[in-house]
Write a structure and sequence with these properties.
transferase, AGP_Transferase, Aminoglycoside 3'-phosphotransferase, Chain: A, domain 2, Kinase-like_dom_sf, 249 residues, alpha+beta, transferase activity, three-stranded antiparallel beta sheet
Amino acid sequence: MADVNEVEVVVAHSERTTLRVGDMFLKIDADQARTDVEAEATAMAPIPTPRVLWRKPHVLAISAVPGMALGVLGEPSPASPGAWAAAGATIRKLHDAPLPPWPGRSVDHFAAELERECAWLIANDVLPADLVTYNQRIAETALRAWKPVFIHGDLQITHVFVEDDEVTGVIDWSEASQGDAMFDLAILTLGHEECLDDLLAGYGADVDVDMIRAWWSLRSLCAARWLIEHGFDPASPGAEFEVLRSQMR
């Protein structure tokens, strides 16, 4: 690796830290299991992923991927409709792949989490009760039996890289598992509803847009406390609280 002048802190909180050193990322995770899942899922996924350079307890070194992210939460996506369609086709390829051998979170897990987090939001006056209960009703429709597919599990807009309307890499696989295909599509378009049609143009058929919307509500409700406790702001423009409000319009 060529000489570098600095170490960039990409993300840092009490659970995990990611550092960039030149063209290498070092991911340090308090939970060894997440590091193991990331390495295994990256190797299994039939789509462009970073190379795993080496592994040690709690540390994973991976290569950088070329291109730029589809965007960031709270800002308009700079990516073209063609890039979003390419992302959709790539996700479809992942969802059509053989399942990973480890299971994902169950309907019962999500139901309990949703109930707990909505109660916390109301009890602590984080959001108006009517906003929480309205979105909770929407979110509950996602809690149904689904055909499990190979999901990324944390397919945020910053985790998909594109160049010249092609996907060059999908990063951060520590939440990969068996799960609901609509969950991945929802996480990628959270706060970017205007890009959903372009994504689905590439993804193809068998999409339930109502379930995508349900996962928008569920994700936003359940993520809020974690974000607040780890120094992030779900009330920032375009972020989770704005998504919840937009569901009422």
